[in-house]
């Protein structure tokens, strides 16, 4: 591992980071990712003008990601002689990078609003987590939007972060989340961002390639029945290639297949109606399926922690065999 940490420490820190996220949630004031978002916004406003916008986007990505990643690496290097302080640093960096609890806090109220038939509140809550237009969205539209966000951001905010933490510790998790945030802010195919945000989109694709497929595999494994697992696998292999994003497709197709619901379809982005490929198989998604999607993401988190424990146990056993 690039962290230089033993698997026992990695397993302990993974668990600590997830527990901190579940217990504390997002920092309400001065959250590092919020500050980073403000930096990204300022860089885009300053550099996304004139000629050579692709090159300007590359420069902006480097200016946003490299100094902060370097600072995190320097901090862990400086703390290396002090084991407990180093471990605490890694755990806190992972905590700042995770977003498991926030996924529930943003999506479960949508399900509650739909259960109370409060469509106006559900539209307002959904608009806070997706970039599509929800002003005239139906209950089914809102349900699909919430579940797609849960499944995709389960990878982006949780499993991709855990993957890069296992490879490169706290600095790796921070680097990944910054790259993912830049893609969320700049990676749109609008006239303004098409060239400037290309670097951010491609870097996120590269960093997410393996985590997304491990997430899709996890969703498939955790489907409730053998037939559901087969359906999740089939949806992943057959439907994902039609999706624009090479990483969101596998994640959402396998998740929808595991849940036995249909996702995708028409949605309005930046004033343009897009007809997106269908994902999943089964009934149309309804409000209670949001809870089921949240449960799938939560159980996948437990699966990843359990796998870390098993890898650690196997490593210990091999050393004493």
From TrEMBL:
GO terms for cellular component: plasma membrane. The chain crosses the membrane at residues 6-24, 54-78, 301-318. GO terms for molecular function: ABC-type vitamin B12 transporter activity; threonine-phosphate decarboxylase activity. Keywords: Cell membrane, Cobalamin biosynthesis, Membrane, Transmembrane, Transmembrane helix. It is found in: Cell membrane. It is a multi-pass membrane protein. It comes from the Bacteria. Pfam families: CobD_Cbib (PF03186). Pathway: Cofactor biosynthesis; adenosylcobalamin biosynthesis. The keyword Acyltransferase does not apply. One of its GO terms (biological process) is cobalamin biosynthetic process. Belongs to the CobD/CbiB family. Converts cobyric acid to cobinamide by the addition of aminopropanol on the F carboxylic group. This is Cobalamin biosynthesis protein CobD. It comes from Duganella fentianensis. The gene is cobD.
């Amino acid at each position: 591992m690039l962290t230089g940490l033993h698997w026992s420490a990695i397993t302990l820190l993974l668990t600590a980071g997830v527990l901190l996220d579940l217990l504390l949630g997002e920092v309400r004031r001065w959250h590092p990712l919020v500050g980073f978002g403000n930096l990204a916004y300022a860089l885009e406003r300053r550099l996304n003008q004139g000629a050579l916008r692709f090159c300007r986007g590359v420069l902006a990505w480097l200016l946003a990601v490299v100094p902060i990643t370097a600072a995190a690496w320097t901090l862990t290097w400086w703390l290396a002689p002090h084991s407990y302080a180093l471990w605490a640093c890694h755990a806190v960096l992972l905590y700042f990078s995770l977003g498991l609890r926030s996924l529930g806090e943003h999506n479960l109220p949508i399900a509650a609003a739909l259960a109370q038939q409060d469509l106006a509140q559900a539209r307002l809550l959904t608009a806070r987590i997706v970039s599509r237009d929800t002003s005239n969205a139906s209950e089914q539209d809102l349900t699909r939007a919430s579940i797609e966000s849960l499944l995709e951001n389960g990878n982006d905010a949780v499993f991709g972060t855990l993957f890069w933490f296992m490879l490169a510790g706290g600095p790796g998790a921070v680097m990944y989340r910054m790259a993912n945030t830049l893609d969320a802010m700049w990676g749109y195919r609008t006239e303004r961002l098409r060239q400037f945000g290309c670097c951010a989109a491609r870097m996120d694709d590269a960093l997410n390639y393996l985590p997304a497929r491990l997430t899709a595999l996890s969703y498939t494994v955790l489907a409730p029945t053998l037939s559901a697992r087969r359906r999740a696998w089939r949806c992943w292999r057959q439907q994902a290639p039609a999706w624009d994003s090479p990483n969101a497709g596998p994640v959402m197709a396998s998740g929808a297949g595991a849940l036995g619901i249909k996702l995708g379809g028409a949605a309005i982005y930046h004033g343009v109606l897009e007809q997106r490929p269908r994902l999943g198989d089964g009934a149309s998604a309804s409000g209670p399926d949001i809870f089921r999607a949240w449960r799938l993401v939560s159980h996948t988190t437990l699966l990843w922690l359990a796998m870390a424990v098993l890898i650690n146990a196997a490593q210990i056993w091999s050393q004493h065999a």
